[in-house]
Amino acid sequence: MKRTRRTLTVLLAGLATLLGLAGPAAARDGDRAEPLATGLHIENGRLLEANGNDFVMRGVNHAHTWYQGETQSFADIKELGANTVRVVLGSGQRWGPDSPENVANVIELCKANRMICVLEVHDTTGYGEQDGAASLDQAADYWIGLRDVLVGQEDYVVINIGNEPWGNTNAAGWTQATIDAVQKLRNAGFEHTLMVDGPNWGQDWQNTMRTTAQQVYDADPTGNLIFSVHMYAVYESADLISAYLHDFVDAGLPIVVGEFSHPADQWGDVNEDAIMATAEELDLGWLAWSWSGNADPIHDLTLNFDPAQLTWWGERVFHGPNGIGETAEEATIFGGGGDPDDTQAPTAPGTPTASEVTATSAVLTWPAATDNVGVTGYDIVRVQGTTETRVGSSATNRVTLTGLTADTTYTLAAYARDAAGNRSARSATVTVTTSRTPVAACAVGYRVVNEWNNGFQGEIVIRNTGTAPLTNWTLGFTFSGGQTITNLWGGTPTQNGGTVTVTPADYTRTIAANGTVTLGFIAGKNGANPAPTAFTLNGDACATA
Q1: Which of 50, 113, 279, 523 could lock 78 by a disulfide, CB 3.0 to 4.6 Å apart?
Q2: Residue 443: which residues within 8 A CB-CB, separation 6 or more?
Q3: Is the pLDDT score of 539 beyond 60?
């Protein structure tokens, strides 16, 4: 989609009050010199390039310091359409340190792959609660040690001083520590845009950053400072997400969502759709966590650093609504952003070919389109008579379509688009018929994790023993001892007497062939706690494991 600067609407004054939260103080005009415009910089609450182009981050996090051999990831992330990559570095307190030579190579990888590079020190994570965590002052010293490789890269690099640099204890201490770190870097001659993460392990759920952001911003003599909130389980309400981000925008203060993911846990179920939709509404950047290599692969965008193995989360981030494929625009420092005088549309893509068709997904490939300047992406549409519905997007000539309906015929076609927003003629169509939903082939394991007088914590592991993915499943079982589920993560429970059914959360919706999903729950009990003796999936009996 063609992005244009737009006037941001003002949030109703009573919204924050209704939610019981206070936002940042309104920005003041005329109380600072014009910000330095050496490269990426802040002006009127927006991140701009040196030429004044409004730049909106759309990218992912990459755990470089733990996987330094995975340098191909930079090209793979770009190939999927990202315009920014946030790179995990170590300052030596817990990981690393990443050397000046290593960091210089990371910057060159970002530049070679035409992405803005957000460099962050991960050692600060959870300072005050995490043993061995670095302080923001120590992180600033690390950046000063890299000054020779960072100065001159202001067009390409944002310095994220420290990842999640304060835990939940005495979060008010974050404000002065952040001011001191910012000023230390400015006194050392850094003119880069600096990014600062909030306290509460980045989530700022106590609203410390939200209420003192103006104070922190005013302490930066350059004005080139952007705030970053990490949105995980506590951000399950669309209203909360909207109010938090609107508060910064309304105050004229720059903000990005520096990390977010999708899984629910016992603290809540993060609303990733609302995060992406609100960011698109306000033209705010976001960086999804994370490319690959997580201890819990539920957070991986791709398995084994292989872009051909996108997970559900990867498909959502790169190809879903308001995702990277739809909204990312390359920084103009690399020649992106489009020429306003370019009115020539790309040629039509070649006829798509379908493969790997299942009950709910299909892979489409097609001969690439050409353009006088360059093709920047493709939109995939379902054609029904004279009506078209977009069902996917991609930065390349390959896309995996998900969320399709079983035993359904689709007529699909592709459009190409360029940086100036010109759209090609439609390709020829291809007809794809999804397969029938297979009869459930499953095994279910059940165990009690912890137990107390009147309650317990349980775990259910569902394994797909078949050869095709299972999607939109419903699990059924019966408690015979009067147990009652009070909270469940990984799905939504419905209980009538002892009979329980569970439908999936978004991130457990599909069970890969020979794959598993895990549900956890808290339940009440009266005395005995017998385990269910039988389980069904979509009405068919499962083996017990």
Answers
A1: 113
A2: 462, 463, 465, 542, 543, 544, 545
A3: yes
pLDDT at 2 over 50: no
Q: Is 449 exposed, middle or buried (0-12, 13-18, 19+ CB in 10 A)?
A: exposed
Q: Is 101 a catalytic residue?
A: no
SS (H, E, C) 293-344: CCCCHHHCCEHHHCCCCECHHHHHHHHCCCCHHHHCCCCHHHCCCCCCCCCC
Q: Which domains occur in the chain, in start order?
A: 54-334 (3.20.20.80), 353-433 (2.60.40.10), 442-544 (2.60.40.290)
The dihedral of CA 304, 307, 309, 313: what is its sign?
A: positive
One-letter amino acid identity for 515?
G
For residues 155 and 164, what is the distance between their CA atoms, to the nearest angstrom?
A: 25
Residue-wise pLDDT tens digits, 74-124: 999 998 999 999 999 999 999 999 999 999 999 999 999 999 999 999 999
What is the three-state SS of 438-471? Answer: CCCCEEEEEEEEEEECCEEEEEEEEEECCCCCEE
Which pair of tokens denotes residue 421?
A: 């927003």
Q: Which of 154, 259, 315, 326 is catalytic?
A: 259
Residue bearing tokens 């309400």: 237
Predicted confidence band of residue 292 (pLDDT cuts 50, 70, 90): very high
Q: How far apart are CA 46 and CA 442, in angstroms?
A: 51
Two structure tokens written together for 182: 């910012």
Q: Which residue out of 120, 164, 280, 326 is catalytically annotated?
A: 164
Amino acid at 245: L
- Contact assessment for residue 146 and residue 112, using Cβ atoms and an 8 Å cutoff: no
Whole-number Cα distances in Å, 538 to 102, 475, 477, 485, 520: 52, 7, 11, 20, 20
pTM value surpassing 0.70: no
State the Cα–Cα distance between residues 81 and 357, nearest whole angstrom: 24
Distance of CA 412 to the CA centre of its chain: 28
From 42, 353, 299, select the one nearest 195 (Cα to Cα): 42
Annotation marks residue 191 as catalytic: no
